[in-house]
Every structure is written in structure tokens, then in C-alpha cells.
Amino acid sequence: MYVGKVVGTVVSTCKEENLKGxxxxxxxxxxxxxxxxxxxxxxxxxxxxxxxxxxxxxGGAARMALGVENAPINNAVIGIIDYPELYD
Length: 88
Fold this sequence. Notes:
This protein has one domain (about 1-80): CATH 2.40.50.220. The protein is built from 1 helix and 5 strands, in the order ββββαβ. By secondary structure, it is mainly β. β2 and β3 form a beta hairpin. A 5-stranded mixed barrel has the order 1-2-3-5-4.
């Protein structure tokens, strides 16, 4: 898992059948060692652009959170962070 910031959305007119109806987000990692690295994650929490989020990078956990067993998903937004506070 990691903390990220939603920096955009993905619009796709053609998707794999099990991804239809799922919202795709572009999430930037906020941790120093991977800062700025972006990934696409399926939204299971109702997040929007600018939100700080908790992202799971375990495909099994992502599919479980979304309730889709056979979808090709590796990353999912599973929580919205109300107040991010990073310590040195």
C-alpha cells in the first residue's frame, strides 16, 4: 500500500468487460523514494482529483475491495485520507 494524490482521471470508451462501469484514476505517489511516479488505479472509495488516497497494490486485495473476481486489476484506491501529515 502507499499514499498517493489523485492527479487525474482516465476516460476509456473501450475496456475489458470486467472493468466496465469502474472509474479509473491517475494517482501520483507522494513518498519521497517514488515521488511523482504515477499509476492508474480503480476507484473503490469515491475519490476525486486532488484527494489524498490510500492505494493497494495487491491485485487480490484490489479485486476484493471492488467485488470483481476476474477483472485485470492490480491497483485500487481503497480510502480517502482526510488530513495527510508526513513526518521527517
